[in-house]
């Protein structure tokens, strides 16, 4: 059913062939000859059918012959093949995009006349942050990902022409061993994940990847720029602070996250100092030691006679001792290699940095500056600048309805007469502003608050504690889910005030150590966003706060707006809201910082980050951007130092280009294109809402057709699958919504409504012009094209067969299928291609390679779901369904 480029063009990358062959050998060696033959039969018949090989049999797929035990093994084998294929592709840089390197971006900007001064000025005001979140879409266990990374490292040795590893193992044997271990590793988690597991998981990326990748990148950038750029790319996290719909996140998890992440940063610095101490063996007999270094050496307390003439080593002993004391102060215990010297803990990362800079200046002073070129010490100084004592900035997030209840309870307990919850917006704002006009707290330490209020108060207090101990950069932002109005933002400042994070000076000027950030995530809230922000800035204290800070962040939610209004409407409203927000910010002289809440799947704003940033409306990037990185995207983009370097650089280049060299588009065209988008969006919205929210029985159709219930039981995240006990689509979280449509190969959130809208649109010439000239529209189509290529209405029809009311299923699925065809045909018409993905052969190849592996998994999943729903109690059935979900998600690459 999926109509893509001619099959003969599909080529197999040699790494996939090698790894696939080894996997086959492992299956034969460990699973037995019968399993190997069954697997091979299913694989080859499926591949032949997909390639259109004459005589390929579609009636006998070999699935019926599998026992339940065989099924579990077979699915595991296909899952591992996909995993290895992903690995091979990532190595070949399928994800690398043209023009995305920093050097390429610089060449382009310089050719357009952007001078170094402008560039450095931009970077001084820039902030680019990937924010790691624990959104539950990563189906693979960490042990599986670790094996995959080990294989990638071994493959890199192979590329370098090495037969033997540094430890003396044969490289091919070592790869085989890793695959054999993979085969014998359980792919599903036995236990539910806890918040602490999620913190550890992200921390391992920070430790193994970010701590190395970022300082390394800065070195490269410094060379390319010819100047030392400020720390404009940093790291963020939500894990341990995002409690929207997750009752397990609290003050404890926040403190735990701070201690784990902060401890990791400090231990990294200790290790680097230790290495540098061995290396910088300069003797004062052979070199003039600057006074500042001498002074550090004297203060160190290091009196070892063997180092008496080695001022740098002595100074570093002192720094090491002080860092150990810092570890004790912040983490609660000694680091693994404690110092024998007594030292006073550093009060701030800046103090540590100052000592390191003293050493660097000392090294640079002699010998014509030969030792001044960064090196390990330069990278360490950079690391301290960007990671501080906290490693990643931890955000808080909670739902606005919770804040409303908490503030209402605080007011009631404090004797405020009005019933806060009963007030209208104006009255609420007035009351909140009054509360924010002085420093007298509302919270009473001795009052017995409800569990919810006590918990919320505890977390803001923990945040204030973290800022004090780990530095101001440890926590800077408080995101508010489902922001509808200004009062939602003020409530957060009222809560912050209870912990001293919002204060008023004697002259009435407010200051805050945390920023209240609205998250606009429904279509209506996005449409109202410019007015909401205008009203916010119209409040004098809020304007003063934002102006003093120089910037204000607004978060926009891709998934929920998509679930609310469908693909094209969500994209368009995000674009419109961003464009309309820019002048609101310009009017008050405050820089706008957009925080993009997106996931990996297209229905959740996924797709190329480079393309997405570059396609942002003019004047909306302004050098400042934060983007969530979630689930499977984290391993794909930041799984290794090399991947992370590419991904971070892509973000930085796209941000520079979007700010200084936005796509130029003729004003007349822009007006025509925008008008067309409004029409397309309105039409798509009607179709999407008509199906999803206005069709009787749709909810039941969706629940029976897709594995939504089975997805809810996957052990992939600490938070419950839904915010409320309701089966309404409105209340379902966006992740399981997108995830379940992907499994059923419909991928409805990535395209539904758009097909009808494009088909109905009268001026097809205009659509073609938009597709060739407007990068924003190109991105919309490119993402939809990928989704269409991964969807398959033939397979989806089998899922529709799971619905009890077959008459209803026939009608609704018929509608979906018709719409898919329209999306497909209109897309080809607008782009002038003969087949999907003609213009993107690498992606086409990647998808084509996987399709024959996914179909048998889908068919097995359907079979198992039927048995499960018929009440068969064998636990292997439930396990089989979960394994197929895992395998399909791995093969599709973007699960939720
Ligand atoms: P949320 O995220 O449900 O945590 O708001 C939505 C998403 O990222 O899909």
Automatic annotation (TrEMBL):
Keywords from the UniProt entry: Carbon dioxide fixation, Lyase, Magnesium
InterPro entries the UniProt entry points to: PEP_COase (IPR021135), PEP_COase_bac/pln-type (IPR022805), PEP_COase_Lys_AS (IPR018129), PEPCASE_His_AS (IPR033129), Pyrv/PenolPyrv_kinase-like_dom (IPR015813)
Q: Does the record carry Lyase as a key word?
A: yes
Q: Which reaction does it catalyse?
A: oxaloacetate + phosphate = phosphoenolpyruvate + hydrogencarbonate
Q: What is its EC number?
A: 4.1.1.31
Which co-factor is required?
Mg(2+)
**One Pfam entry name:** PEPcase
**Residues making up the signal peptide according to the UniProt record:** none
Instruction: List the molecular function annotations (GO) for this entry.
Output: phosphoenolpyruvate carboxylase activity
**Which EC class heads this enzyme's classification?**
lyase
List the active site.
135, 563
Q: Key word Magnesium present in the record?
A: yes
Q: What family does the entry list?
A: Belongs to the PEPCase type 1 family.
**What function is annotated for this protein?**
Forms oxaloacetate, a four-carbon dicarboxylic acid source for the tricarboxylic acid cycle.
PANTHER family in UniProt: PHOSPHOENOLPYRUVATE CARBOXYLASE
Q: Assembly and interactions? A: Homotetramer.
- Kindly provide the name given to this protein in its UniProt entry: Phosphoenolpyruvate carboxylase
Which taxonomic lineage is given here? Answer: Bacteria, Pseudomonadati, Pseudomonadota, Alphaproteobacteria, Sphingomonadales
Q: Which gene encodes it?
A: ppc
């Amino acid at each position: 059913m999926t109509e893509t480029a001619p099959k003969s063009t599909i080529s197999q990358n040699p790494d996939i062939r090698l790894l696939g062959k080894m996997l086959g050998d492992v299956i034969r060696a460990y699973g037995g000859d019968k399993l190997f033959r069954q697997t091979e039969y299913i694989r080859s018949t499926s591949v032949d059918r997909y390639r259109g090989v004459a005589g390929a049999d579609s009636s006998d797929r070999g699935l019926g012959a599998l026992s339940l035990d065989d099924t579990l093994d077979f699915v595991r084998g296909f899952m591992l093949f996909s995993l290895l294929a992903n690995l091979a592709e990532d190595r070949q840089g399928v994800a690398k995009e043209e023009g995305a390197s920093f050097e390429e971006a610089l060449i382009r900007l310089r050719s357009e006349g952007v001078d170094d001064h402008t560039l450095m000025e931009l970077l001084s005001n820039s902030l680019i942050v990937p924010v790691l979140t624990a959104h539950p879409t990563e189906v693979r266990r960490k042990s599986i990902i670790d094996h995959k990374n080990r294989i990638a490292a071994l493959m890199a040795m192979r590329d370098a022409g090495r037969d033997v590893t540094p430890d003396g193992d044969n490289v091919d044997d070592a790869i085989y061993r890793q695959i054999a271990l993979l085969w014998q590793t359980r792919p599903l988690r036995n236990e539910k994940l806890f918040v602490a597991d999620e913190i550890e998981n992200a921390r391992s990326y920070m430790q193994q990847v970010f701590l190395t990748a970022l300082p390394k990148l800065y070195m490269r950038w410094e060379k390319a720029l010819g100047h030392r750029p400020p720390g404009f790319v940093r790291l963020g996290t939500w894990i341990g602070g995002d409690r929207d719909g997750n009752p397990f996140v609290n003050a404890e998890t926040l403190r735990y996250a701070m201690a784990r992440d902060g401890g990791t940063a400090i231990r990294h610095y200790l290790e680097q100092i230790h290495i540098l101490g061995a290396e910088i063996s300069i003797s004062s007999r052979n070199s003039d030691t600057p006074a500042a270094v001498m002074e550090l050496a004297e203060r160190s307390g290091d009196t070892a006679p063997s180092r008496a003439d080695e001022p740098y080593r002595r100074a570093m002993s002192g720094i090491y001792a002080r860092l150990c004391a810092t570890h004790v102060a912040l983490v609660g215990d000694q680091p693994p290699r404690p110092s024998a010297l007594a030292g006073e803990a550093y009060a701030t990362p800046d103090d540590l940095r100052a000592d390191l800079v003293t050493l660097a200046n000392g090294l640079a002073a002699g010998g014509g500056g030969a030792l001044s070129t960064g090196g390990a010490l330069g990278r360490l100084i950079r690391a301290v600048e960007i990671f501080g004592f906290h490693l990643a900035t931890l955000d808080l997030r909670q739902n606005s309805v919770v804040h409303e209840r908490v503030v209402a309870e605080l007011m009631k307990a404090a004797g405020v007469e009005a019933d806060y919850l009963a007030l209208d917006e104006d009255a609420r704002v007035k009351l909140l502003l009054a509360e924010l006009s002085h420093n007298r707290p509302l919270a009473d330490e001795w009052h017995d608050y409800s569990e919810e209020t006590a918990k919320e108060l505890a977390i803001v207090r923990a945040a204030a504690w973290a800022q004090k101990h780990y530095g101001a950069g440890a926590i800077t932002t408080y995101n508010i889910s489902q922001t509808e109005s200004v009062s939602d933002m003020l409530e957060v400042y009222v809560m912050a005030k209870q912990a001293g994070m919002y204060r008023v000076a004697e002259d009435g000027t407010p200051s805050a150590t945390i920023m209240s950030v609205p998250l606009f995530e429904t279509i209506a809230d996005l449409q109202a966003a410019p007015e909401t922000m205008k009203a916010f800035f119209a409040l004098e204290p809020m304007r003063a706060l934002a102006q003093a800070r120089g910037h204000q962040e607004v978060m926009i939610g891709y998934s929920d707006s998509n679930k609310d209004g469908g693909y094209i409407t969500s994209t368009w409203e995000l674009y419109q809201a961003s464009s309309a927000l820019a002048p609101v910010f310009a009017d008050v002289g405050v820089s706008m910082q957009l925080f993009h809440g997106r996931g990996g799947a297209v229905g959740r704003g996924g797709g190329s980050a480079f393309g997405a940033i570059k396609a942002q409306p003019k004047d909306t990037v302004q050098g400042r951007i934060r983007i969530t990185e979630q689930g499977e995207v984290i391993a794909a983009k930041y799984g290794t130092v090399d991947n992370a370097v590419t991904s971070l650089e892509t973000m930085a280049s796209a941000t520079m280009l979007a700010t200084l060299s936005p796509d130029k588009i003729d004003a007349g065209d822009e007006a025509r294109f925008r008008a067309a988008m409004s029409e397309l969006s309105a039409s798509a919205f009607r179709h999407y809402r008509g199906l999803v929210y206005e069709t009787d029985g749709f909810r039941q159709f969706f629940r029976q057709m897709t594995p939504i219930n089975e997805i809810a039981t996957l052990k992939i995240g600490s938070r419950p699958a839904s915010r409320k006990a309701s089966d309404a689509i409105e209340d379902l979280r966006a992740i399981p919504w997108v995830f379940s449509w992907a499994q059923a190969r419909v991928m409805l959130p990535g395209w539904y409504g758009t097909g009808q809208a494009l088909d109905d649109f009268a001026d097809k010439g205009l659509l073609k012009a938009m597709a060739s000239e407007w990068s924003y529209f190109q991105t919309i189509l490119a993402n939809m094209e990928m989704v269409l290529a991964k969807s398959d209405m033939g397979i989806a029809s089998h899922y529709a067969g799971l619905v009890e009311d077959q008459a209803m299923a026939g009608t609704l699925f018929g509608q979906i299928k018709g719409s898919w065809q329209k999306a497909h045909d209109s897309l080809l018409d607008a782009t002038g291609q003969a087949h999907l993905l003609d213009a993107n052969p690498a992606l086409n190849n990647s998808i084509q390679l996987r399709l024959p592996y996914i179909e048998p998994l889908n068919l097995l999943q359907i079979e198992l779901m039927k048995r499960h729903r018929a009440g068969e109690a064998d636990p292997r059935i439930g396990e089989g369904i979960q394994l197929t979900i895992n395998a399909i998600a791995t093969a599709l690459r973007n699960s939720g």
